[in-house]
Write a structure and sequence with these properties.
Blueprint (H helix, E strand, L loop, with lengths): L1 H4 L11 H27 L4 H9 L2 E5 L2 E5 L4 H9 L4 H17 L20 E2 L5 E2 L69
Antiparallel strand pairs: 1-2, 3-4
Helix pairs in contact: 2-3
């Protein structure tokens, strides 16, 4: 019932594809919010529809060139926000302050970034001017790798191990060919080209 009436899904008209996705996304978020209000209403022994109507009465109005919220002084609204783990008056006053500061021409106070490296820059180093220091890939010069892995096993040197011999056969069972040119291929004599001499007739 509430999906049809309160969320507006009683009628479905013609929409383009992204419009349908947006409509269902809004409905899903609204259903989650309604569930949270319903859970808080049960602790207050009130109906969900009554609490939604009380919240719907909250309205920001402009009085004497300043914005203010109406019906924000009701205890039922503050009890609902408190059961949801929020301070109703603090949230409403903050939103009103933003609008009043905008009318007064005051610049909003930006939140300061937490100290430390910039977000997403955990693989980048910066100099004093804030420019990225491009590091060459690979191990830093002068660093020595440990002889033991993290799991305690001895680290093997890269490449073919000393004293190991390669098999005569490949993985597919074919005979492995020795590297380099085939035997006798570089001893072939060059084909003798016939020399052409110019004969001057006398």
């Amino acid at each position: 019932m509430f999906v049809k009436t309160q969320l507006g899904y009683g009628t479905a008209r013609i929409y383009y594809t992204n419009g349908v996705y947006s409509k269902f996304l809004v409905g899903f978020v609204a259903a989650v919010l309604r569930y949270e209000i319903e859970s808080a209403s049960l602790t207050l022994d009130r109906s969900t529809t009554q609490m939604i109507r009380e919240v719907d009465l909250l309205e920001m109005q402009k009085i004497n060139d300043f914005y203010t919220y109406t019906h924000a002084e009701k205890n039922i609204v503050s009890d609902l926000f408190s059961s949801l783990g929020a301070d109703a008056l603090a949230l409403l006053n903050e939103s009103v302050k933003i609008e009043n500061d905008r009318l007064a021409g005051k610049a909003p106070v930006l939140r300061h970034r937490k100290p430390g490296p910039k977000k997403g820059s955990h693989h980048k180093n910066y100099d004093a001017d804030g420019n990225v220091i491009h590091m060459k890939p690979g191990v830093k010069p002068g660093t020595k790798r440990s002889d033991v892995n993290k799991d305690g096993t001895p680290r093997k040197k890269p490449g073919v191990q000393t004293g190991s011999t390669r098999s005569k056969y490949n993985k597919d069972g074919s005979l492995r060919k020795k590297p380099g040119p085939k035997p006798g291929s570089h001893h072939k004599p060059k084909s003798a080209e016939p020399s052409t001499k110019l004969v001057q007739k006398t």
